Every structure is written in structure tokens, then in C-alpha cells.
User: Fold Glyoxalase/Bleomycin resistance protein/Dioxygenase superfamily protein from Lentzea albidocapillata subsp. violacea.
Amino acid sequence: MELWVPDLARAEATFGWILTELGWTEHQRWAAGVSWKLGETYVVVERSPAMTGPHDRMKAGLNHLALHAGTREDVDRLTRESEANGWRLMFADRHPHAGGSDHYAAFLENEDGFEIELVAG
Assistant:
């Protein structure tokens, strides 16, 4: 998965924090981007000169990334720590069941409008 971002440092701080907390490790780095890997899967954030506008999760394309986040306690801890690391809790009035009564997750959004869903196993 490659995400084009308007501010590489900000994306690296937010995505880097959450991915590292979930056990991902930095995989590659270059002037315009960085990637993290877990098993055979990797995520890239890149400041591409070909990007034409801001991300909008409500338009065609990526709405959000859903990631396994461990136990309910892990999701709760990450939710508590998320604001200090550039994320805000979405759907707070329905948290942690915003995805349904049988679904325990935190929906987080960063300053650039990217959403991550941290799902308890």
C-alpha cells in the first residue's frame, strides 16, 4: 500500500508511531518517502511531486486502513496514546463499537485526513 501525503515528516510521525507500535519495522527510506514492513506486507508514505490535491477519504479511493491491533487492552492503550502522536479519535460517541456491537476497534484520523481502524482480535 502506498499513500501519497502532503507532508512527509508529519506522515512519518503519525504512521511511523502506529505501525511501530503494531510491530512493523522500517523497511526502506529515501528523500521523498519511507516504508514499514510486517511479514510480506508493507506500507509506504511518500511525498510525490505528481500528487495533485489533498487526500479525501470520502471520495473514490482509499477510505481507511484497517489493521489488527492485538487485544482489546492493546486497542485501548493505543487509543489513549494516539492523540499525543498525531491522531484523533473518530466516532467517540460510539467508541469502541463504532463498527458494530460485535466489533471492537478504534477509528483514528490524522491531520491530513487519513483514517486508521485499529481492530481487536
Summary: The helical segments are 8-21, 72-82. The beta strands are 2-4, 25-30, 33-38, 41-46, 65-68, 87-89, 105-110, 115-119. Residues 2-119 form a domain with the 2,3-Dihydroxybiphenyl 1,2-Dioxygenase; domain 1 fold (CATH 3.10.180.10). The chain has one domain: 2-119.
